[in-house]
TrEMBL record, chains A, B:
Gene3D superfamilies hit by this protein: Aspartate Aminotransferase, domain 1 (3.90.1150.10), Type I PLP-dependent aspartate aminotransferase-like (Major domain) (3.40.640.10)
Cofactors required: pyridoxal 5'-phosphate
Any Pfam family hit: Aminotran_1_2
Similarity comment text for this entry: Belongs to the class-I pyridoxal-phosphate-dependent aminotransferase family.
GO molecular function per UniProt: pyridoxal phosphate binding; transaminase activity
InterPro entries in UniProt: Aminotransferase_I/II_large, Class-I_PLP-dep_aminotransf, PyrdxlP-dep_Trfase, PyrdxlP-dep_Trfase_major, PyrdxlP-dep_Trfase_small
Species of origin: Planotetraspora phitsanulokensis
The name this protein goes by in its record: GntR family transcriptional regulator
Keywords: Aminotransferase, Pyridoxal phosphate, Transferase
Oligomer and partners: Homodimer.
GO BP annotations, alphabetical order: alpha-amino acid metabolic process
Keyword Ubl conjugation among record annotations: no
CDD domains, sorted: AAT_like
Domain Aminotransferase class I/classII large: 63-408
Length: 441, 441
């Protein structure tokens, strides 16, 4: 009796969760899918778990007292402006300062061609919105940033991956892919690339290839969308020259203060050829009217009054130490048959598992052993990546990184024994795009 | 010779502005069109012009010293959280507080069904994104909010206006419109309505009609999107009961802190049936990953520590005084044949010009006489509204409002003389949706 009652309650509860609107969504809503591993990441955020999953910058390294004074000062001196609506294109002074930041990567641009966005994620969304009709092709590195793949999917783009190696995108593969697609009548709208300290692969497009990639795209009439959130976080020498620096009319450049200052302000930007910029501003106004004046002015005040180049240096040193901790402990702990990239900047290492192992199948076991990573399949839109995983070193402190790698190595060892005993590891999960939680940025 | 050179230079300059990407935009980009009157509004922002155009709240009435302390305190006490990425759905504490705010309008809801957005404009964008395929129908009051029409247009919706009078949307017209459209096979995705202190009309849906509108939409299976930025800014008595209060499964409610606190934080929200909420969170993550944690926590801190209900009362009294200044001076100065609405809250009065006058044609002359308004055509997607204009009383002080109305009356008088002498006023401009600048919110 009690049992029946409980059962009745459960059905009613489930009933109320049935989607009355299921037949009414737009076709594009089918492309918005929650990550299968999302529930696991909720567990992974517990303090006892070492998360090598998230892409959260280590904002604790900021001078918080200075930031506090600065925002108070902003309200005192410019309150009525900071609290009001702003322009759709973004604060003009901040756009000037953004041009100064981009100059470090060889970019010469005017503030008039910059649009401030809600993180560079929004720049991605708006660029996709103005260029992509359902079925249009976006080229992207394989693997590529999970948040970009989610956005392309939401606009019903067809993502075609282009092969990369430890020097970044392979120009011959790019040329062949473009040729094959255009011959087949596909409409390629742009190449989406993260040339520097790529997410998730951690590799960087070399200088010779940069010129080749630009030439190939120019010749084929393919716009380049250069996503560059990590460009100033290199561990060796001067910042690399951006693709945009050598092709102002063929490249839309996306930048962000999320990794060089703080993601909590959500200030990113797009630098675009003039006509594209016009469309971006209209799309921006239609999407959110305008970005927060408050956070824009806070970033502007920070750049104007603080030694921001020094702060970036602090971040670089911090992340280099963590990269070293990750690479060294991989060397020490990982079983034979594992290989990984060696990033010269940014946040991520891309690891390849021994033959027959599936990273998504490993994840629940890893979380049970108190370590988390992102399975490789999230970074492909074609089901690839099962043998890979992304390891982030940006957030945990070096000792925690070493402990996390030790735990992960144990899980992989066990899986290898399983494979060697039974011929295969745990069954593969269904592959697909994992819409990222924000902490996977 | 010099002339030829100059001509050559001009051509080169124009040439560099030719859009190399003109053939490559998505079909939806054609729906993103800049306002024809945008250039005039740039002029209208000069201090000598009385702007009755913008919908900017009077943030100077906020206790700026308190806000300054509050944001400094936020960084000091919760800096590493406030500066970090947040969840796509928004800060859980803020979502609880939002439920408390909505309780003032009779809404009982759980924080789990709230999604925090970049102003309620983004909530509108995301709702449109998940429901609208090209050609789908959105019902909206005629006139309706220009920013919503711009968003619907950007997603290639077909907007069908439903007639309203001084008691809001006319239920019979709504029922007839739905019947005619559904009989003709149109897919109506939702009714977009601003039931309380409507933008731009300044009218409010009465209580009897609220029930009727809900019943009509329930019967026809049409979702209601209730946009309610002004609901707490009524001049008489208690806040009205929201539509959502009486139909949790049939209404998506959009709210905002832009008018009750400050637009510069860009914090709005959607409250949606559970399944729709799931889709909204995915769309939010795909669009911007997450909203600014900093501004969300700042709003949360404000609500937790400040007498926000008292502050809303201050705003109400301030706007009532300005509403009175506008209505009284319209009475005093406007020539016979003009009529206007009498808002009981919010920011706007909707004025109807005498027969034969066109508000868009009047605007350049008005700006020359140092007064600005928004022509009525922007609030219709079908070319209607030429005989109307929106007058805002939210931003200028009462004396300025009176002076602005005096100037505007003079311009209308002149136009009437022209009409009576020549049979018609200035030629009509081409009508169409004017994508709003943010100051037209």
């Amino acid at each position: 009796m009690t049992h029946e009652l409980d059962h009745g309650r459960m059905s009613a509860a489930q009933g109320s969760r049935i989607d009355a609107y299921i037949d009414r969504y737009a076709a594009r809503a089918a492309g918005m899918v929650a990550s299968e591993v999302r529930a696991l990441f909720a567990v992974a955020s517990r303090p006892e778990v070492v998360s090598l999953a998230g892409g959260m910058p280590y904002v604790t390294a900021l001078p918080l007292d200075v930031v506090g004074e600065l925002v108070a000062d902003l309200v005192a001196k410019r309150g009525p402006v900071a609290l009001q609506y702003g322009s759709g294109q973004g604060d003009p002074d901040l756009r000037e300062q953004i041009c100064e930041v981009m100059r470090m990567e060889g970019i010469e641009a005017g503030a008039d061609d910059v649009v401030v966005t809600v993180g560079s994620q929004q720049a991605l969304d708006l660029i996709t919105r103005i260029f992509i009709d359902p079925g249009d092709v976006v080229l992207a590195e394989g693997p590529s940033y999970v948040g970009a793949l989610g956005t392309f999917s939401a606009y019903q783009a067809k993502v075609v991956h282009v092969a990369m190696d430890d020097q970044g995108l392979i120009p011959e593969s790019l040329a062949q892919t473009i040729y094959a697609l255009q011959t087949a009548g596909s409409r390629i709208k742009f190449l989406y690339t993260i040339p520097t300290f790529q997410n998730p692969a951690g590799v960087t497009l070399n200088e010779v290839r940069r010129r080749q990639v630009l030439e190939i795209c120019q010749r084929a009439g393919v716009l380049v969308v250069e996503d560059n959130p990590y460009g100033l976080l290199g561990f060796d020498g001067e910042p690399l020259r951006a693709l945009r620096a050598d092709d102002p009319e063929g490249v839309v450049y996306l930048g962000s203060f999320s990794k060089t200052l703080a993601p909590g302000f959500r200030v990113g930007w797009a630098l675009a050829p003039h006509a594209v910029r016009d469309k971006l501003v209209l799309a921006m106004e239609s999407a959110v009217l305008s970005h927060s004046t408050f956070t824009q002015l806070a970033v502007g005040q920070y750049l104007a009054s603080q030694p921001w180049r020094e702060q970036i240096k602090t971040f670089r040193e911090l992340y280099r130490e963590r990269r070293d901790a990750l690479l060294n402990s991989l060397e020490v702990f990982m079983p034979a048959g594992c290989s990984w990239t060696r990033p010269a900047g940014g946040f991520f290492v891309w690891m390849t598992l021994p033959e027959g192992l599936d990273s998504k199948a490993l994840l629940p076991r890893a979380v049970a052993e108190r370590v988390a990573f992102v399975p490789g399949t999230g970074f492909y839109s074609d089901g690839g990546g099962a043998q890979h995983m992304r390891l982030s070193y940006c957030y945990p402190e070096p000792d925690r990184i070493r402990e996390g790698v030790r735990r992960l190595a144990g899980v992989i060892e066990q899986e290898l024994q399983l494979r060697d005993t039974f011929g295969t590891g745990t069954a593969r999960w269904h592959a697909g795009i994992d819409t990222p939680g924000p902490d996977l940025a």
